[in-house]
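In the design runs reported in the main text, the only information available to the sequence generator was the tokenized backbone. The following block is the verbatim input for one such run; it is reproduced so that readers can re-run the procedure and compare outputs position by position.
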């Protein structure tokens, strides 16, 4: 059995799609992406169903997993990679900036996020789909705040909401990342940990776009290397 025998699909957000945000808040497509690098390395085609701004909440509400299950051949070796969660952890910063002293939930409430993860995982496993989770690309607090949030919302008020502590951005994202890991461990699913390779990189800023939430081309290549290492050494059943 080798990786060419598997039918691999990714449901994800802008990172597996290979998109980023420039200084004018416009969406840009990177010429080099981790998914393309992996496809070229193994000579395979990956069904990349990633979308900019995608959330687990939207995937759940639109029954995208049911749609995926209805399209697969149960006789195939089906693999679904879920690379999602960063947008769920994010907030509607414009609304936060308008009412910083009111309660604001992230785009997906943390408790609901965990329930959706569990429901989706159970549904896929029941159909004998191999589920692989990807950890979240780490936020750079200052870049994200000053280059993105402060440009589209009332930054002064957003800072009030954050209790003048920008590290609340990355801590809140970490909460969702921990939920992904916990869910994968609970159901015996594999995890591709891209987060750790960036947290461990002294030159992390070379890998992080100026928007603070997307990898650069170098970052995309770093992700590809991590996935290839996972396939070749940590999960030999796929090769």
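Verbatim output:
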């Amino acid at each position: 059995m080798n990786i060419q025998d598997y039918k691999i699909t990714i449901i994800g957000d802008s990172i597996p799609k290979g998109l980023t945000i420039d200084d004018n808040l416009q969406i840009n497509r990177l010429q080099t992406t981790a998914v393309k690098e992996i496809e070229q390395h193994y000579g395979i085609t990956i069904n990349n169903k990633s979308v900019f701004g995608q959330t687990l909440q939207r995937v759940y509400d639109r029954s995208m997993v049911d749609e995926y299950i209805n399209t697969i051949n149960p006789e195939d070796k089906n693999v679904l990679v879920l690379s999602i969660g960063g947008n769920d952890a994010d907030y509607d910063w414009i609304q936060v900036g308008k009412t910083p002293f009111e309660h604001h939930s992230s785009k997906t409430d943390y408790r609901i996020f965990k329930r959706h993860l569990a429901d989706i995982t159970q549904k896929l496993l029941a159909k004998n789909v191999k589920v692989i989770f990807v950890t979240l690309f780490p936020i750079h607090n200052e870049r994200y705040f000053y280059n993105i949030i402060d440009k589209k919302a009332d930054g002064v008020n957003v800072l009030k909401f954050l209790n003048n502590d920008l590290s609340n951005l990355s801590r809140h994202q970490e909460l969702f990342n921990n939920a992904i890991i916990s869910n994968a461990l609970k159901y015996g699913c594999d995890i591709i940990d891209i987060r750790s390779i960036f947290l461990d990189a002294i030159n992390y800023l070379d890998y992080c776009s100026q928007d603070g939430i997307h990898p650069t081309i170098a970052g995309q290549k770093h992700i590809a290397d991590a996935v290839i290492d996972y396939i070749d050494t940590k999960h030999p059943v796929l090769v």
